[in-house]
Design a protein that fits this description.
Distance between the termini: 35 Å
Order of helices and strands: HHHEEEHHEHEHEEHEHEEHEHHHEHEEEH
Strand content: 5-15%
Number of helices: 15
Strand order of the largest sheet: 4-11-10-9-8-5-6-7
Largest sheet: 8 strands, mixed
Number of strands: 15
Structural class: alpha/beta
Shape: globular
Length: 443
């Protein structure tokens, strides 16, 4: 039995609860190997199918992971411990550059758009049985996708990017399937995938996005799905250029059965071109959230994909929430149709701050990355020490542990709260705290 902790129970639910108690108390260490199912069944004097059901429940809850003959073990970071909980709060008088929020000054006012949505609702209230997607929302979303050469496909509205990605993965995958995720990558996604009972395969990234060698290795290892960020990658700011897109499309085309999910949350607040990978495989999806460009509390995203994928997503959505509020959809329609966000201006504002910080760090001998979006990634040799030293110097940054699996250590800096006058002092503090570090590489 693992350590001194004794797993107990006669029913699958009791066995699963016993393991969860051990993980929560720390008596079952993170990454610790669990006993083989037959061995535990003999110990507990129950049928091996009972233990199998308990382990299946634990996988689905994101508590354990199973890797074939290597057995089952407690996840290095159970789903009950969200990466978002690894927050560093600024000290009194300090500055917080770690939360990843957009610049409030660059977000549009929402009063007019919601007033317009309410006016339309007053004329014709939404009721049960209506189409889940407001026609104007679908038309504008489809036109924007088409303008970026995304293949034709049905449109759905979801409650943000993470909701869309979860629905697409659930439409195709089963417990234990492997999913390729960017490393470093979006912490919420790194939590969600194992919580769904899926196995994460880290895929190294560089400034151009997922590294082809890492993608090919993951595909050869049998990943069933691959989630990629098109631009403004969180946390590195990577963006997929035309050449890299061509390389990735060629790799994916050799594995047509793989599911491809593209997250283009940078739409409308970055000016780096979008080079879609959609269509390289039989099943694909592209999602565009409005959170970063229009406001995080607008929990709306436009989703498109191949017919089979979208049919499954729409069918499951009907059985759950039914639809995303049409009031929200109408408000987004007004924002889109009135050009509420001046994308070149917003992108330029973030770009000036991002580029200034990267350049200032380079002058001080520190390598940093931030090709697009609102974040800069700084590799460091001692992440914990760097975070602590920066906090003492008056700057709260995001620990790289929120975003990493196998990737080298680093910290994320969000430029949204910064002015150009802040760049020098922040760069001085980072240079004093960072120490030598490995740059982003092909892994």
């Amino acid at each position: 039995m693992p350590g001194e902790y004794m797993i107990t129970g006669r029913r699958a639910a009791e066995i699963a609860a016993s393991v969860e108690r051990g993980v929560s108390s720390g008596e079952l260490a993170l990454g610790q190997l669990l006993p083989p199912m037959r061995e535990l069944a003999n110990q507990l004097k129950v049928n091996s199918n009972t233990v199998a059901a308990a382990y299946r429940t634990l996988r689905e809850r994101g508590v354990i992971e199973t890797d074939g003959r290597r057995g089952s073990r407690v996840r290095p970071r159970p789903a009950t411990t969200a990466r978002g909980s690894l927050r560093i709060e600024a000290l009194p008088g300090g500055r917080d550059v770690g939360k990843g929020n957009p610049d409030l000054a660059l977000l549009p006012a929402l009063a007019e758009s919601f007033a317009e949505a309410l006016r339309g609702y007053g004329e014709k209230p939404s009721m049960y049985g209506e189409l889940p997607v407001v026609p104007e929302f679908g038309t504008l979303a489809r036109a924007a996708f088409a303008a970026d050469a995304v293949p034709d496909g049905p449109i759905a509205a979801t409650s943000g990017s993470l909701d869309a990605i979860e629905r697409v993965l659930a439409a195709h995958l089963k417990t234990g399937d492997a999913v390729g995720l960017e490393d470093p990558g979006w912490g919420s996604l790194l939590d969600l995938v194992p919580a769904m009972g899926l196995r994460v395969v880290p895929v190294a990234v560089d400034e151009e996005g997922p590294a082809p060698a890492a993608v090919e290795q993951a595909l050869r290892a049998g990943v069933r799905a691959f989630v990629v960020t098109a631009r403004a990658q969180n946390p590195t700011g990577a963006a997929i250029g035309a050449r890299r897109a061509g390389e990735l499309r060629a790799l994916l085309a050799a594995y047509p059965g793989a599911l491809l999910v593209e997250d283009d949350h940078g739409h409308a607040f970055v000016d780096v071109p979008f080079h879609p990978l959609a269509g390289a495989t039989h099943h694909w999806a592209v999602v565009r959230s409005v959170a970063k460009a229009y406001g995080p509390d607008l929990r709306v995203a436009a989703l498109t994909g191949d017919g089979v994928t979208m049919d499954r997503v729409a069918g499951r959505q009907r059985l759950g929430p039914g639809w995303v509020s049409r009031l929200l959809q109408r408000a987004v329609v007004h924002l889109w149709s009135t050009g509420a966000v001046d994308t070149p201006s917003v992108a330029r504002s973030y770009g000036e701050r991002r580029s200034a910080l990267v350049a200032a760090l380079a002058e001080r001998g520190v390598v940093a990355y931030g090709r697009s979006g609102m974040n800069v990634w700084v590799p460091v040799s001692d992440e914990t020490g760097a975070v602590a030293r920066l906090l003492h110097a008056g700057w709260a940054v995001a620990p790289g542990a929120r975003f990493r699996m196998d990737a080298p250590q680093g910290v994320r800096v969000t430029v949204s709260p910064l002015t150009l006058d802040d760049i020098g002092p922040l760069a001085d503090a980072i240079a004093a705290a960072a120490g030598p570090a490995r740059p982003l590489s092909y892994g």
